[in-house]
Write a structure and sequence with these properties.
A 7-stranded parallel sheet has the order 3-4-2-5-9-1-10, with helices on both faces. A 7-stranded parallel sheet has the order 13-14-12-15-16-11-17, sandwiched between helices. A 3-stranded antiparallel sheet has the order 6-8-7, sandwiched between helices. It folds into 4 domains: 19-80 and 133-174 and 284-324, Rossmann fold (3-Layer(aba) Sandwich), CATH 3.40.50; 91-132, no CATH class; 177-268; 331-538, Rossmann fold. It is built from 19 helices and 17 strands. It is globular and about 75 Å long. The chain is α/β, with parallel strands linked by helices and 539 residues long. Residues 256-262 have low confidence and may be disordered. Helices cover 40% and strands 14% of the residues. The longest helix is centred in the middle third of the chain and has 27 residues, at 225-251.
Amino acid sequence: MSQHSLPAWASAPRAHQPAAIDAAVEAFNAGTEVVFMDAPTGSGKTYIGEMIRRELDTRCVYVCSDKQLQDQFLRDFPYARVLKGRQNYRPTYATGKITCEDCTAVSADDDCMWCADRNMCPYQVAKAQARFAEVAVLNTSYFLTEANYVGTFSKNDLVIIDEGDMLEDALLSFVEYRVPEYVMRDLRLRAPTKGARKPTLIGWLNAVATAARQLVQSRGGAMERKHQNRWAAFIDDTKRVAAELQRDVAAADPESDTEADDAGRWLRDYDTKTFAMKPVQVAGYGPKALWRHGKRFLIMSATIISPDEMVHSLGIPYDFETVTVPMTFPVANRPIILAPVANVTYATFDLAVPQLVFAIAQIIAMHPGERVLVHCVSKKLNEALCAGIAVAGVVRPIFTYSNPNERTDLIKDFVNSDGGVLFSHSMDRGVDLPGDMCSVVIIAKVPSPALGDKRVSARLHLPGGEQWYAVQAVRKVVQMSGRHVRSDTDVGVTYILDAQFTTNLWRRNRGLFPAWWREAVDSSFDVRQLMPARMSKAS
C-alpha cells in the first residue's frame, strides 16, 4: 500500500519509537479497534502514527485539530494530501473574496461561473487527490461534517486522530445547535424568552423548520448553492434538536419540574446573541457522528490522562488498548515547583490577588532576563494580576491581550523582548515557546472547568462526572506546564501558586497525572520566600 518512500528525516527511528509502533500494530492485528497512543511532547507522534499505518499496509485519514497541523503534516510527509473546507480554495476566475464556497453549480452536471472547467475546480481536485491518497489529512471539524453529510470519507480502514484529548469539544461543537444570524434576519425571528420550558422550545423549533423550508422553496433556483446547502443543513439540525427535546420531555417525571430549561440531555446556551442549545454530554452521539466512520482508530495525545474516562465520555463502542510512550526529556530540565501562596477561589478572590501579585513579582526577580509566561485561566484574574504588577515596581516589559486576534503579534513581541512577562488566560495549548523564547511558566490558578457553566454543572452530576471534571483540570495543568520545554535540550521551570492544587487536585487525583509529570514535581521549595514577611511569620 505504501507507494512512497519516507523522507530523509524519517529514515531512522529514535530509540523509544519502535516499541510503541510494534505495540500498536500488535494490538490492531489482534483485533483491537481503538488504540490510545499516550505520547508526551517530543516523542514524535506524527512519525509513530505514519509508521503504524505503513506497518498495517493500509490507507488512512489523518485527523488533526486545525489547519496549521495539517500543513505541518504535509511538510513532514510530502506524499500526503491535505483537504480543507471550500472557503480555502480559489476558483479560476475568482475576484475579490470569491472562493470555492461560492460555487454556482446546483448539481454535479452543472457548470460553475467561476471555473473554466468544473473538473478543474481547485476544491474538487484537492478532494479527489485526498480521496485516493495513502494519507488524507483533514481537520476534525471538516472530517465530521464531510463524513456525516457527504460520506466521501465515511468508510475508512484506519483513522488516526492527533490531539485526541480535544475530541469531546469537537463533537460538542458538531452536535450543538445554533440559529445563525442570517436565519434570524431572513425569517425575522425572535428567540423564545429566557427560561421558556421545553414544550415551548419544541413548538418554536418546529415552526422555525417549517418557515425555513417555505423560504427555500419560494426562492427556488435563485438561491446560490452554498446558501441552499446551509439552509438544508440548518433545517435538518432544527428537526433533530426538536426531536431530542421531545425525548427529554417524554422522559421527565410528570409530577416534577424536570421539564424546565436546565434539565434533561439538552441545555439552552445563553452566552450567544442568537438561540442556541447544546447536549450535556456527547457520548450518545459519538457512535453515529464519529465511530461508525472507521474500522480502526489510533487516538494520539500528550494528555490522554484517562483512557477509561475518554471511552465513557466519547461513547466509544469498541475494545481498546493503551500504548504509553516514555518521556525523553531529562527530569532536571523541567522541574515543577509547588508553591501554594494563595487559595484562589471565587470567595477568596480579593484576598488571593495581592498574594499572587507579590509571589509573581518575587519569581520574576528570581529569574532576571528570562521570559515568563503567566497562566491566569480567567479574564478577570488576568486583568487583576496585570493591574497589580503595574504598581508593584516590576521593571520588565509586560504583555497581555483581550482580543484573540492580537495573540500572534503579541507572542512575537514577547519572544523578541528582553525578559518580557506575558499574562494570558488562553494559552494552555497551541503555543510553543521552545529554546530561550520562554524559560519560566507560572500557573496562577488551577484551571478547573467553571461550575457556573450550566453544562459543566450538569455534566458533573451525571455518572462519572467527578472523574470527568478532574480529568479536565489535570489535562490543562499538564498542557500549561509544557509550553516552554519542547525538546530534550530545552530547560524551563514551572511554578504552581494556587493552594487549590496541593490541597485538592494533586492530593485527590495524583494518579491521573502522567508518571513523567509526577517525577518532575518538587514540593520541597521554601514557599515563604514568595510571601510577604507578615505571611511568612504567620505560616
